[in-house]
Amino acid sequence: MFDMMGMMGKVKEMQARMKEVKDGLVHITADGESGAGLVTATANGAKQVVRINIDPSLLKETDQIILQDLIVAAVNKALQNAEEKAQAEFKKKTEGLLPNIPGMDLGNMFGM
């Protein structure tokens, strides 16, 4: 016989584990560079840019910190907007396919 309550418990457990993993992604970082190291960027596992470094030879020293902060903010906003659009598209494409269970966001199970 099908154990609906058991399955729901497993789904909730899986959601909790996925959230735990997702929350831990901010502690994973990776670097990228361009222009033979003149510009470097650091992003975390949550797809957020956390640091931009621009070699001072590319600009006036007084502009460097402001420019770095503005680039980080703009890139993170673009990533956030892209994520929101992706979630909306996922919801639109899966409408009617996934059961509507109050309190459960099954879209998060697929990373959306």
Automatic annotation (TrEMBL):
GO molecular function: DNA binding
Location(s) in or outside the cell: Cytoplasm, Nucleoid
Principal location listed in the UniProt entry: cytoplasm
InterPro entries (alphabetical): YbaB-like_sf, YbaB/EbfC
Pfam families xref list: YbaB_DNA_bd
Keywords: Cytoplasm, DNA-binding
Keyword hit for Oxidoreductase: no
GO cellular-component term (any): cytosol
Coiled coil (residue ranges): none
Record's subunit section: Homodimer.
Function: Binds to DNA and alters its conformation. May be involved in regulation of gene expression, nucleoid organization and DNA protection.
Protein family: Belongs to the YbaB/EbfC family.
Protein name in UniProt: Nucleoid-associated protein CHU_2675
Species per Swiss-Prot/TrEMBL record: Cytophaga hutchinsonii (strain ATCC 33406 / DSM 1761 / CIP 103989 / NBRC 15051 / NCIMB 9469 / D465)
Top-level taxonomy: Bacteria, Pseudomonadati, Bacteroidota, Cytophagia, Cytophagales
